[in-house]
Write a structure and sequence with these properties.
The complex is a heterodimer of chains A (about 400) and B (about 650). Chain A has about 400 residues and is mainly α. Chain A has one domain. Chain A has 15 helices and four strands. The radius of gyration of chain A is 23 Å and the shape is globular. The two termini of chain A are about 35 Å apart. Chain B is an alpha+beta fold and about 650 residues long. Chain B folds into four domains: about 130 residues, no CATH class; about 80 residues, no CATH class; about 110 residues, no CATH class; about 300 residues, ABC transporter involved in vitamin B12 uptake, BtuC (Orthogonal Bundle). Chain B has 26 helices and twelve strands. In chain B, the strands form four sheets. In chain B, strands 4-3-2-1-5 form a five-stranded antiparallel beta sheet. In chain B, strands 6-10-7 form a three-stranded antiparallel beta sheet, covered by helices on one side. In chain B, helix 5 packs antiparallel against helix 6. Chain B starts with a helix and ends in a 15-residue tail after the last helix. The chains are: A mainly alpha (about 400), B alpha+beta (about 650). At the A-B interface, helix 5, helix 6, helix 7, helix 12 and helix 14 of A face helix 13, helix 19, helix 24 and helix 26 of B.
């Protein structure tokens, strides 16, 4: 008899409740929907953090449970952002351009509008033609499909190539890192079709929406919270079922699972692709809040940071990933934003903007050496104490 | 002009044969007094030639002085003298023949010769022969270079005359090469030119191509009838072919006023806007004009009323173009010459292509040695010990900064580099040992966590370097004797610094092989990496060996950093540029084997240069394609080019 996975995982309920109450509190305190204690820019930071938590959940699924240390998930995140960014930018430019052309003495033809959009968007890279990749940019539905489809296909092809030749462990990590670097370098080119290092910008403005940013930011915040809730539940459902057991088996002893008759490559490919899609959705929610996306976002180091968040939060437990991503990214924002107080030592003043990365780097070392279970390990200690009491 | 030259030649031969009338300079000038006083480009030629051909030793000096406006005429008797100003409006005159002073005169007694620019040009040409025969070889070389910069037809005759008497072998070769180049451009005789062109077949010099290319320059012509027979036609071009699209061909017709301009969508728009009448254009309401079909209809109606020119679209263009033939003609009129030039150029192109391949190969080898240098330390720590050290790039950076700091202390670049190399090794060796002792030894069986921990160290070290040295790039200057390049010909050259890096890479390879194969430490390293427990029971201390091996790999990275810093900028982020490539090099080459790293570096170096050559405008794309190629390559050889076999391969 099958029991509901929530019954097997009471922690999911706890997490969903916590997320819901967090969302409600933030909504009440927000500028857009509530009493205005939390500024719009901080709402955006919180919304972005939720998206980072979502990709951290995906990372935990692929690394913590299946043992694949992918250093490429941020590439999928960025691609998702690019896909939604294309529609946002196209549609917004179209509205502006059409309005401008309508001011003329005779109404514009379709091709005039498109040429004008093209020169608006690609003028910075010295072109005015739409590249092939923008074919569907005029359709929100297709572009939303591409958010999942393009990173998904990339992950599928790359994963198939990598897993079938039995690239495992650190070799796979290096290979995924190379893939990310290749993608970033490709996007840096001006003729990549995605505006080179200018990236896509103005994404915070929803085309055709008159609502102020305080309201729009709340929509995205709520959507991010909902996506995180759904993603977390999906991940919890996966790891609590038979698939989860197989994945853990692969993580702990791949050869043995293979000898038991499971198609290890198939499982790995499935989880790699699925998490890539989740990452892409997180990216598609993140970049409209960030307002701009450029190739610098997806250089390999970003993906390594992602792994570090999960490691600090505690991998192999989904809430650990959420805690790690939320904690580290918020605290990083605080330190690098210049808000942290400087520490005067008399002969030298420690400015956190300069020293935060040193501290962060050393804390990775500390966590891997002394607390391999991360912050999540603290919960184990609590549980043990309860058990004893 | 050519007649003047022949006359000039004749006069010179005369002079050399000793047939010159034994006139002094002053006598020649007095004979041509009127021409000299009112000198103009058209009339002065024969006088200058006569002076030049007089075979008088003072002739050169006089021509120079004349060109520099230092010749004065005495009003009282009309004689010409060199004049130098001794006081204000007071001039000392010297006789041009004897060089003796004839006294001082005030300006009002004198008249200055002021040759205009045309005359000065003729004087300069006449002086060329003097310069080409100057007793000082440096002056002769200088004259040749000046001639190379701006060759003219007038140079050819004096140049030819000066070759036979040239004593210096190098200068003679130089002169005869230049003579052949000038022959190609300026000789009136076609057969001579063709012979000169053929003498250059396969020559790599840029000067040859610069001389030949103008001969085969073509210009586009259009005729409505048959092709003209009196022009040197390069080829006939069909409109609509790859070289000339239909619209481009039509634009040529329009530019020559052979056809009315085609009607573009902008023209239609402008015409419609100009004829809006009460919200309507030609009885079509403006609101409907967002449809191109309706715009066209409106335009046609306007055309019917003769308000705008008739619409000319693609069909009209095609029809119109049928009536014309497009062909390219050479500016050079002689068919024989253009044929010879084309043949010579194609042979030169072939030769240039082969040399470019050689140049590319040298570039690729040099890039490969850089990758090899960057990766060799990693080949030890990752390849032999299996430790993923993401801070490897930062060891390279530490080495480079060590070099920078040493250069601040020791200003002599040669000495400072010699000090920096061992010091960089020492610094990064120490850093490697510390890192191994504090972090890595706890993580030997957890490679993924080693990756994270060393990545943490990497970002901490990067930020630390940024805090100490700032974000600005620091220079690490190579010693003076490494400046410059080894130039094989105009196509192939390689800078000394790259040769030095290649040699350094070879030295590293040798040192590495020696340590691993021939020393006690190498033996122990190999033992410990194969089976640490067995090694321990044989009395080897695995901890110590691991520590030293890791230190060695890190130290080599530091030395590589000094070498890399010599040609790349030293920044806190320079490690990032090499870390992925280094791992790729080791993985592609095959883990656990120095020859693998060498093979990997060679492959990646050649691959990258090859892709860059195929797509020269874009080095970023080259890297992208290279990484994709590597990912695919690993499909076929997952264990790299040189894979360990048997038990050593492990799992």
């Amino acid at each position: 008899m099958r029991t509901s996975f929530i019954a097997k995982n009471p922690s999911v309920l706890v997490f969903l409740l916590a997320l819901a109450s967090f969302t409600i509190i933030v909504t009440i305190l927000s500028e857009g929907f509530g009493i205005g204690v939390i500024s719009t820019s901080f709402i955006k930071t919180l919304g972005k953090t939720l998206c980072l938590c979502l990709i951290a959940v995906a990372m935990d699924l692929v690394w913590g449970f299946a043992g694949i240390l992918s250093l490429g998930h941020f590439a999928f995140f960025g691609l998702g952002g690019y896909m939604i960014g294309m529609w946002l930018m196209y549609e917004r430019t179209r509205l502006i351009v059409t309005e401008a052309l309508m001011q003329g003495q005779i109404p514009p033809t379709g091709s005039e509008v498109i040429d004008s959009i093209g020169s608006q968007i690609f003028g910075v890279v010295g072109s005015n033609e739409f590249p092939l990749i923008w074919t569907f940019a005029d359709s929100l539905g297709l572009q939303l499909l591409l958010v999942v489809l393009l990173p998904g296909i990339l992950a599928l092809v790359f994963g198939w190539l990598a897993f079938r030749s039995r690239v495992t462990g650190v070799y796979l990590s290096i290979l995924t890192q190379a893939m990310t670097l290749a993608l970033a370098l490709y996007l840096f080119q001006n003729d990549s079709g995605l505006r080179g290092n200018n990236g896509l910008s103005g994404l915070q403005n929803l085309p055709g929406v008159e609502a102020p940013q305080s309201i729009v930011s709340m929509w995205f915040f709520l959507a991010s919270a909902m996506a995180l809730g759904l993603g977390y539940s999906l991940a919890a459902w996966i790891v609590s079922g038979k698939l989860g057991s197989v994945l853990r088996g692969i993580r702990d002893n791949e050869t043995r699972v293979r000898f038991l008759g499971y198609s290890v490559e198939g499982f790995k490919l499935a989880i790699f692709t699925l998490t890539a899609c989740i990452a892409a959705i997180a990216g598609a929610l993140y970049y409209p809040q960030a307002g701009i996306i450029n190739p610098a976002e997806i250089v390999p180091i970003a993906s390594i940071y992602l792994a570090v968040w999960v490691a600090i939060g505690g991998r192999g437990r989904l809430y650990g990933a959420v805690i790690g991503a939320g904690f580290v990214s918020l605290i990083s924002t605080w330190f690098t934003g210049g808000q942290a107080p400087d520490i005067p030592l008399g002969f030298y003043t420690i400015r956190w903007v300069d020293w935060w990365l040193v501290l962060l780097g050393l804390s990775f070392v500390g966590v891997t050496l002394f607390a391999p279970k991360g912050i999540g390990g603290l919960f184990d200690l609590l549980k043990k104490k309860e058990g004893k009491a | 002009m050519i007649r003047i030259l022949i006359a000039c030649l004749a006069l010179m031969c005369w002079g050399q044969a000793g047939l010159a009338l034994d006139l002094t300079l002053q006598e020649i000038l007095q004979q041509n007094k009127n021409l000299v006083e009112k000198s103009s480009r058209k009339t002065i030629g024969p006088v200058i030639e006569e002076i030049a051909a007089s075979n008088l030793s003072q002739a050169q000096g006089f021509l120079e002085a004349w060109g520099n406006k230092q010749v004065w005429q005495r009003r009282s008797d009309g004689l010409f003298f060199f004049g130098t100003e001794v006081a204000k409006r007071q001039y000392k005159l010297t006789d041009p023949d004897s060089g003796e002073s004839v006294g001082e005169f005030t300006k009002k007694d004198l008249k200055q010769l002021k040759p205009n620019s045309g005359v000065r040009a003729l004087i300069a040409t006449a002086l060329v022969l003097f310069q080409l025969s100057d007793p000082d070889p440096a002056k002769r070389a200088e004259a040749l270079q000046a001639m190379e910069r701006a060759p003219t037809a007038e140079h050819l005759a004096p140049l030819r005359l000066s070759i036979d008497n040239e004593q210096d072998a190098d200068l003679k070769a130089h002169k005869s090469r230049l003579e052949r180049l000038l022959t190609i451009s300026f000789d009136p005789d076609t057969a001579t030119r063709v012979a000169a062109i053929q003498s250059f077949e396969g020559d790599l010099g840029v000067d040859v191509r610069a001389t030949l290319n103008p001969l085969v320059v073509t210009s586009m012509n259009i005729t409505s009838g048959d092709l003209p027979t009196d022009e040197n036609i390069a080829r006939v071009i069909k409109p609509g072919s790859e070289d000339l699209s239909m619209p481009a061909a039509y634009d040529l017709l329009v530019a020559r006023k052979l056809a009315p301009p085609a009607t573009s969508t902008e023209d239609i728009r402008a015409a419609l806007v100009a004829h809006i009448d009460g919200g309507q254009v030609a009885k079509i309401s403006v609101a409907q004009l967002s449809d191109p079909e309706i715009r066209r209809q409106a335009y046609d109606r306007l055309a019917e009323q003769s308000l705008v020119p008739a619409f000319i679209g693609e069909e009209d263009i095609a029809k119109k173009l049928l009536g014309y033939t497009f062909y390219e003609t050479f500016a050079e009129t002689s068919v024989v010459v253009t044929d010879a030039a084309q043949a010579a150029l194609s042979k030169i192109d072939l030769n240039v292509g082969m040399n470019q391949t050689l140049d590319l190969t040298l570039d690729a080898i040099s890039l490969a040695s850089i990758y090899f240098l960057a990766a060799i330390g990693l080949a030890i720590t990752f390849g032999v010990m299996g430790v993923i050290n993401m801070a490897h790039g930062e060891f390279i950076m530490m080495g480079a900064y060590t070099g920078y700091v040493v250069q601040q202390v020791i200003p002599n670049h040669t000495v400072s580099i010699l000090v920096a190399l061992p010091l960089a090794f020492a610094v990064t060796f120490a850093a490697g040992v510390v890192m191994e002792r504090l972090v890595i030894r706890y993580l030997y069986n957890r490679p993924l966590e080693t990756l994270l921990a060393t990545f943490g160290i990497s970002i901490a070290l990067q930020q630390l370097a940024k805090n100490i040295f700032g974000t600005q790039a620091r220079p690490l200057t190579a010693p003076g004797w490494l400046d410059g390049a080894w130039v094989m010909n105009d196509v192939v050259s390689i800078s000394f610094i790259r040769i030095a890096i290649f040699i350094l890479a070879l030295i590293f390879l040798g040192v590495f092989l020696f340590i691993i194969k021939r020393t006690r430490l190498g033996l122990e390293t190999r033992t410990v990496t194969q089976n640490p427990r067995m090694a321990a029971s044989m009395g080897i201390n695995p901890e110590r060996v691991n520590m030293l091996t890791f230190g060695l790999g890190s130290g080599i990275a530091g030395v590589a950093g000094v070498a890399i810093g010599l040609f790349a900028k030293v920044t806190s982020e320079m490690g990032n540029d090499y870390i992925v490539q280094s791992f790729m090099t080791v993985v592609v080459g095959g883990v656990g084997n120095i020859w693998g790293a060498l093979a990997g570096a060679t492959m990646i170096g050649f691959l990258q240069k090859g892709i860059e050559w195929g797509n020269p405008s874009n080095t970023l794309a080259a890297q992208t394609y290279m990484i994709i190629f590597i990912i695919i390559f690993i499909q076929f050889r997952p264990r790299g080019i040189i894979a360990l076999k048997g038990r050593a391969a492990g799992d």
